From TrEMBL:
InterPro entries: MFS (IPR011701), MFS_dom (IPR020846), MFS_trans_sf (IPR036259). It is a multi-pass membrane protein. The keyword rRNA-binding does not apply. SUPFAM superfamilies: MFS general substrate transporter (SSF103473). Its main location: membrane. It is found in: Membrane. It comes from Thermothielavioides terrestris (strain ATCC 38088 / NRRL 8126) (Thielavia terrestris). The lineage of its organism: Eukaryota, Fungi, Dikarya, Ascomycota, Pezizomycotina. PANTHER family: MAJOR FACILITATOR SUPERFAMILY, MAJOR FACILITATOR SUPERFAMILY (MFS) PROFILE DOMAIN-CONTAINING PROTEIN. This is Major facilitator superfamily (MFS) profile domain-containing protein. The chain crosses the membrane at residues 39-64, 76-96, 108-131, 137-158, 187-212, 233-257, 269-289, 301-319, 325-350, 357-382, 420-437. Residues 1-29, 455-476 are annotated as: Disordered. It comes from the Eukaryota. Residues 13-29 have a biased composition (Low complexity).
Length: 476
């Protein structure tokens, strides 16, 4: 993104005689009416990155069984399914620190390059090991992209407007700076979170749950001050719940389409479009509402309430459910979950200083990605428990049994999925109550940041230049 790592010119402060007028001005007057072309170029670039990474995830959800079969990778299915999330989750705190030290542009370019390289390796994979390696590299790049999209958006727009733009998007010297990098913390944190994720996805599958070990780090890499107020802590809880629910629906709806309705991988992807496209629109609408109303708690309550209704409707899904019905069920669910994508991060930042934006966003992105693992692992345990207890060898029986017997197996899959949907209902209701953790804090209408767009024709960043300040005061 051109120019996003350079300090922007600060605006002149308002004259003393205009301060009272400025204070009385409505919040909408604080926002710039026209934005430069460079701003829109950055927004378009961020939107493309968000679209590409989201498209990649959706494609893999529906095609994973086919890919595993083609590569003869059933023995390492756990790694094929989860290596991407492992890599994306583990690197995000490190990328957040690098974004503060090196600026936003260099980490973004590197992450895009890694994502592209990993995509090429995975796309041309001839065996499971090559595919896992490619997806891991791709995950490192994607993890950084997820985080940097949010950080750059926070650099460019006011706190009150960030939900709107996040929704639209989802449709010292070098030596001293490097010296400030928390190398020890990251060396501890990254292997630790990988170990936790390995235990989570292999527990009860590859190794028994009783085989755990635990170690506690004395100096955690995540600053405790980020959880120092109710609103920020509550926002992290809500983001975790939202990402678990989003991943649960995204992972098990294709299972319903392929295992219960008997669709092809291509048709399953088409049937998933109401959920995928609806998420983007709901995120944009939620951000716009927060920007205009200046509140987030009512949006969060409505979001999780609608999610509970949507997952409740999913419990009605069966082999004879009409297309119109399950399409509407998808839309109800994403109308609930979608707004959390764009409105939770601004709520978290409302209680934190601007200097903590990168660190807070890194933790936000980490928790969101970490929730994706739980959104597959825990529901999978529930689903497999129901299916395996009812039909011990149900998986892969379709080509070998007659129609009558397979109809019975389908009913077992329906029962397993129903248990997953009820898990989603319970988690959504928990989210409604978790909103009470948040306080109502005003969303700032000032933008103070060291990073922004360079003025036209500006050269290299001037580190002595004051931070950009965008307010509603008019200079005279």
């Amino acid at each position: 993104m051109p120019g996003t790592d350079a300090p922007a010119e600060s605006e002149k402060p308002a004259a003393a005689g205009t301060s009272s007028t400025s204070a009385a001005a409505p919040a909408d007057a604080a926002r710039p009416k026209r934005r430069p072309a460079r701003f829109w170029m950055v927004i378009v670039a961020l939107s493309l990155l968000a679209f590409i990474t989201s498209l990649d995830a959706m494609i893999l959800f529906t095609a994973l069984p086919t890919i595993t079969a083609k590569l003869d990778g059933s023995a390492v299915y756990v790694w094929i399914a989860n290596c991407f999330v492992f890599a994306a989750t583990a690197v995000q705190p490190l990328v957040g620190q690098l974004a503060d030290i090196l600026g936003r542009k260099v980490p973004t370019v590197v992450c895009v390059a890694l994502f592209t390289l990993g995509s090429g390796i995975a796309g041309g994979a001839a065996n499971p090991a090559m595919f896992i390696a490619g997806r891991s590299i791709q995950g490192i790049g994607a993890g950084g992209i997820y985080l940097l999209i949010d950080i750059i958006a926070c650099d460019l727009v006011l706190l009150r407007d960030r939900g709107k733009w996040l929704g639209i998007i989802n449709y010292g010297d070098l030596a001293s700076s490097i010296a400030s990098l928390d190398v020890v913390g990251n060396l501890i944190f990254i292997p630790s979170i990988i170990a936790a994720l390995i235990g989570l996805v292999t527990g009860g599958v590859v190794h028994p749950w009783s085989s755990f070990r635990h170690f506690i780090a004395r100096n955690p890499g995540v600053p405790s001050r980020l959880f120092g107020n109710r609103t920020s802590a509550g926002g992290y809880v809500l983001m975790f719940l939202s990402s678990v629910l989003m991943q649960t629906a995204g992972y098990f709806l294709p299972v319903y389409f392929q295992a219960v309705l008997g669709t092809t991988v291509m048709d399953s992807g088409v049937y998933f479009l109401p959920f995928a496209i609806g998420t983007l629109f709901a995120a944009a609408v939620g951000g716009v509402l927060m920007s205009h109303l200046g509140v987030y708690r009512p949006i969060h309550v409505a979001a999780f309430a609608l999610s509970a209704v949507g997952f409740g409707l999913f419990t009605l899904l069966g082999p004879d459910t009409p297309k119109v019905a399950w399409a509407w069920y998808e839309l109800v669910t994403v109308i609930g979950l979608g707004p959390t994508i764009s409105t939770v991060l601004p709520a978290i930042l409302a209680g934190l200083p601007q200097s903590d934006v990168a660190a807070a966003t890194a933790v936000f992105s980490f928790i969101k990605t970490f929730g994706f693992v739980w959104g597959v692992s825990i529901p999978s345990i529930i689903f497999n428990g129901v299916v395996d207890d009812s039909v011990p060898a149900a998986h892969g029986l379709a080509p070998t049994v007659n129609f009558a017997m397979w109809s019975e197996v389908v009913q077992v899959y329906v029962a397993g999925l129903k248990a997953v949907w009820w898990w989603g209902v319970a988690l959504s209701i928990l989210g409604v109550f978790a909103v009470a953790i948040e306080d109502h804090l005003p969303l700032s209408t000032e933008l103070e940041t060291e990073y922004g767009l360079r003025e036209g024709g500006a050269g290299a960043a001037d580190k002595d230049r004051p931070a950009a300040v965008e307010t509603g005061s008019a200079s005279t």
